[in-house]
Amino acid sequence: MIRYFRTRQAALTPLLLLMPAIVTMLFVVALPLVFSLWTSLTPYRLTRPETIEVFIGIRNYVRIFTDDDFWAAFGRTILFLAIALNVEFLLGLGIALLINKITWGQRTLRTIMMFPMMFSPILVGFQFKFIFNDNIGILNNALQSLGITDQAIPWLVDGRLAMFSIIFAEVWMSTSVFAILLLAGLFAMPRDPLEAARVDGCNAWQVFRHITLPFIMPFAFIAMTIRSLDVARAYDIVQVMTDGGPAGRTELIWTMLARVGYENARMGQANAMAYVSTILSVAFTYFFFTKLIAARRYMGGAE
Amino acid sequence: MSAISLSKVVKAYGKLEVVHGIDLQIAHNEFVVLVGPSGCGKSTTLRMIAGLEDITDGDIRIGDRLVNDLPPRKRNISMVFQNYALYPHMNVRDNLGFGLKIAGQPPRVIEERVMEAAEILGISELLERIPAELSGGQRQRVAMGRAIVRHPEAFLFDEPLSNLDAKLRVQMRTEIKKLHHKVKTTVVYVTHDQVEAMTLADRIVIMKDGYIEQVGTPMDVFNHPVNTFVAGFIGSPPMNLIPARIAGDAVVLSDDVAVPVPDRLKAHVSDGMAVTAGIRPDDMTPVGHGIHDTDQMAAVELTVELAELLGTETLIYSHLAGHEVQGKMFDPRDVAEGETLEFRIALDKLHLFDAQTGRSVRAG
Ligand SMILES: Nc1ncnc2c1ncn2[C@@H]1O[C@H](COP(=O)(O)OP(=O)(O)OP(=O)(O)O)[C@@H](O)[C@H]1O
Ligand SMILES: [Mg+2]
Fold it and tell me: Are A42 and A93 in the same domain?
């Protein structure tokens, strides 16, 4: 009998030791998830707490899926993501390649490169809001002083330009994520295959295209995974710079979601959007992760 | 016309000169091995031939082309690296075919040549694998395959076997030799292992500190080392080198040990000359356990300090004239430490070097 208890206890030990983590996860992740899933199935309004008990099935989802504005925001988010990630990748790659080449002052440059990441996105948003302001912004000021234009370019007022401005701010802030990870990739790159490729007949571009690039792509995929999660939930910069305007032309999923949830107090519907957004993020993460894993297969044999 | 020719080739890194104006002519289809101790400039020389390092001065020709300023891709050579340097993200097939693909060969030709190379090296089953899934020996084969598919003017090998275990190394050594017989091409092969050099080479180039010490066939450098460095470097176990003095017709090793000057060297030495006597362990054996008596023979008594049984022979460590020496006992019997044996030295194999310059007295 005692023996029986002993072995039972031994079997339970790992579970017991994991208990704090499990409990924390339950409260911090699982419970809110379940709660928000539930509220997305109710007409929950912050102003009328009793509505949380009314079950309305998938009506919230039906509503957002039939809402053109939602789809516009959804599409814009994906566009935003696609442009920001590609531009950041290309710029980051360029920066990494340049820094990899220099031998003097490399450490300092690497540190300086991190600066944009150290600022709060809200402050970056404010900063660019002032830079792009059509009346008092330094950008228009500079352009006019240089005589490039004599008009005040409506950077944040015109729909297209506003989108461009936001992407610009986002890219400015986060290109270093790519640059740093790609630089790490370049540092890890063995030198021999590059030389082998040169002997095998490659010119500089072919060496880069066929050897260097495939080798550092896994690092790019890591950056893309991180950044796709980041950008898919972009809110602060947009909120500060344009607040989704002009006339909803820069509205992304999360700015729309915050408006519906907090300004209109329709939490139920907002949570339904949040779920859609989460699925979008998961889809992106999954996509890049599969690519990463496929590419990582050969990394073990890099030597 | 040589396949590869180096004339007065100098390499300096900044102010530091590491290769000092070397000359070397390599004939078509010749297997030349560059050998020497670590840091003597073998890899640097090879990499200059490949075009991976600029040359500071001098000329390098491949075939009849001056290639001083040509990038590696225009030199029509291929190279096998010490760490294999396979392309990690490509499978074996693509690794082998990569050079041909870059050269714009049609897929049919690539496929044909890849299969041919894979066949020669016995890696046909591995074509779909990536380098991470191969053993060291297999990677080595792929690296060689990649070199031969392009049918280059010359192969360059930089210590290709040094990452393999001893047994595999011997096996691959033989395979490289066979490969050279099959694929007749000029080979320049770098190693610091003199056994590898002796077994593979048509001609050996012995380097030291950025200079070429001697160039010759394995037989030549073994039997006629031009200086004490080559004498000590080629041959395993190394040649015994003992300081001595010429007194009349005798090489005096110490007050109580002297051997006659061999007839063939008499003309090259003078009375009172300070020399270094060189005797290979194989040429110093106990009576009845090695060399047969001839008239060119000297006798010495040695006390066994350590005996290493190697199977067909026993290596005997002792002191001769105050210097540690090694002798060999062929067809061995058990010997006890402290036992004194009578040894014979084959005088026709005795080497004498000028003590001042280290050069063989025969070389003048
Ligand atoms: N990039 C470099 N900068 C400065 N010195 C170098 C450089 N590469 C090599 N050397 C020096 O040149 C000399 C020759 O080097 P090399 O690599 O040719 O030697 P090696 O004969 O191949 O030696 P090992 O058997 O160890 O490979 C060495 O003294 C080395 O320190
Ligand atoms: Mg080397």
Answer: no
ipTM: 0.84
Closest ligand by atom to B52 CA: 1
Instruction: Tell me which chain B residues have a C-beta less than 8 angstroms from the C-beta of A215.
Output: 88-89
- Record: contact A301-B88, CB cut-off 8 A: yes
Ligand nearest to the CA of B37: 1
Q: Which domains, ranges and CATH numbers included, belong to chain B?
A: 4-232 (3.40.50.300), 233-354 (2.40.50.140)
The torsion angle over the Cα atoms of residues B254, B258, B260 and B266, rounded to 10 degrees, is 10
Cα A214 to Cα A135, B156, B196, B203: the distances in Å are 46, 27, 36, 41
Q: Which residues of A touch B79 (CB under 8 A)?
A: 195-196, 199
Q: What would you report as the CA-atom Rg of chain A, rounded to the nearest whole angstrom?
A: 25
pTM for the model stands at 0.81
Give residue B154 CA to ligand 2 midpoint distance, Å: 19
Give the closest residue to B86 by CA, choosing from A210, A195, A199, A193: A193
The answer on A175 and A43 residing in a single domain is no
Rounded Cα distance between B296 and B281, Å, is 17
Does ligand 1 come within 6 angstroms of the Cβ of B87? no
Residues B89-131 have pLDDT tens digits of 899 999 999 999 999 999 999 999 999 999 888 899 999 998 9
Q: How far apart are CA B314 and CA B332, in angstroms?
A: 6
